[in-house]
Amino acid sequence: MNRFVTTDSLRGLFAAGMSDMYRQEVPLYGTLLDIVAHVNATVLHNDPALRQSLADMDECARLDLERHGAVRVGTASELALLARIFAVLGMYPVGYYDLAAAGVPVHSTAFRPVDEVALRACPFRIFTSLLRLELIEDPVLRAQAQKVLQRRQIISERGLALLENAERNGGVAEDEAQEFLAEMLAIFRWHSQAIVDIETYRKMHAAHRLVADVAAFQGPHINHLTPRVLDIDAAQAEMVRRGIDAKDYIEGPPHRREAILLRQTSFKALEEVISFPDGATIQRGTHTARFGEIEQRGMALTPKGRALYDACLHKARAGEHPAGHDHDARLRKAFRDFPDDPEDLRQQQLAYFRYVLTQKGKAAAHAATGTTLPDWLAARWVQAIPITYEDFLPISAAGIFRSNLGDGSRQGYDSHGSRAVLEAALGRKVIDPFELYETIQEKSLEVLASHFAAMRA
Ligand code: OOG
Ligand code: NI
C-alpha cells in the first residue's frame, strides 16, 4: 500500500525546502534569520506570559520559521500552473491586490491555507504577482517580452508528470514526495544566467525593473522569504546596528499595545552578478531582485476596522517626506484615532474575535445561565480571543516592492485593477479574506450557543 503524505506536512516540507534553498542562495538571509532568532529569544525571556501562551498553542517550535514568500510570474498560464501546484500543497488564492495604482505593474493574490487546522499546522503563504505587460507603453518591447515569456517552460517534464499524478490520485504518494518537492522547488530557484541578451535586458529594465525581473530569466525565482518576529522594532534596529542596508521604515500600522494587521520590513535587494548570452560568448552584468523580509502580525480587522485603518494611513501619508524621514511620528499621530484597547475594538466591531469557553465557563452550573454573549462575557464563562490577520496589505506590499526596486518616486499607473483577468487566469474566484475571518468568528459563537442551550435543557 502506497500511502499519501498529508497536505499539511507536504506544505511544511515545501516551506522548509524553500528556506534551505534560499539560505544557500542568499547568505545575508541567514544573518536575518539569526537576528530574528535572537530577538524572539529575548522577547520570550522577558515575557513569561507570552512564552506560556505560545507554548499553550504549540507555537514555540516553529516560532522562527518562515510565514511567507513571494514570486512573480509572466503569463496567465504560468499563474494557472502555480495555482495547481499550490493546491496540492493546500494553498488557495485569497484576496486580490491591485498594485498598479502604486506604480507597480502587477496584480496579485496570496496562496495560503484557509482553515484553522491547516493554518495552525503550517501557515506558509506565497504572495504571487502576475506581470501586467499591457501597462508597458512601448509596443515593440511589450511584444518582445511576450514572446520570451510564451517560449519559456518553468516546470520540467518530470515535474509536470508528478503534478498530474498528484492531481489524478488526490495526493502525493510517500515514495514520490521527495522527488515531487525537489521538482517543485526547482521552479523557484535562482538563475544566474539570463535568457535574453544584455541589450534586451536593459530595455526591459528601463520600461520597468519588474519586466526585466520576470521576463529576462528562466523562471519565477523566489524573491524573498519572511519569518515571524515578535518585536519588529527591535529587529529593524538590530539590522541597522549591524550595518545591513534596511528599508527606511516599517510598513503598516505603528507600534501599538494591541497589534493589528501586519507590520513588515526588509533588507534591501542585493545586486547580483548575471551572465547574459551574447552570441557564442557571454557578457557580465548585474540584477537586483532578492531580499529578506520580516513580519509581525496582529489581529484581523472587520471591513469597518479596515476602513478606519485605511483612513488613518491615508492621513499619515498625506504630505509625508518621500523618503519617509518623518514616517514613524506621523504614523503614531494619525493612529491616535484607532482604539488600542481590546474591549473597545470588540465592542465597536473593528476586529474579529474567536469566542471560547473558559475553565470557569466549563465548570458553571446551568441554573443562572444567561442567554446572550454579553451575559457570558460578563460572567467570565466566555473569553474573546483576537483572530490573527493571515493576509497582506496592498499599500505595504507596494512599499516593499518599491523599496526593493529602487524607484521610490514612481507615479501610479492610470489603470484600475482587473480582478476578473486574474480570476480568469486562475480559473476560479479568489476567496474573500473577510469571509474567512467572519466564518471563524461565527462558528465559535455557534459552538457556544449550542453548548449553553444544552446546559439549559
Ligand atoms: C512581493 C511584495 C509584497 C509583502 O509581504 O507584502 C510582499 C514582491 O516583491 O514580489 O511580499
Ligand atoms: Ni513579503
Automatic annotation (TrEMBL):
Cofactor(s) of this protein: Fe(2+)
Pfam families registered for this protein in UniProt: HGLS (PF07063)
Domain of life: Bacteria
Entry-linked Gene3D superfamilies: Uncharacterised protein PF07063, DUF1338 (3.10.180.80)
EC number annotated for this UniProt entry: 1.13.11.93
GO molecular function: dioxygenase activity
The keyword Ligase is assigned to this record: no
Annotated InterPro entries: HGLS, YdcJ_bac-like
Keyword set, alphabetical order: Dioxygenase, Iron, Oxidoreductase
KW Flavoprotein (keyword) present: no
Record-stated family: Belongs to the 2-oxoadipate dioxygenase/decarboxylase family.
UniProt protein name: 2-oxoadipate dioxygenase/decarboxylase
Species of origin: Komagataeibacter sucrofermentans
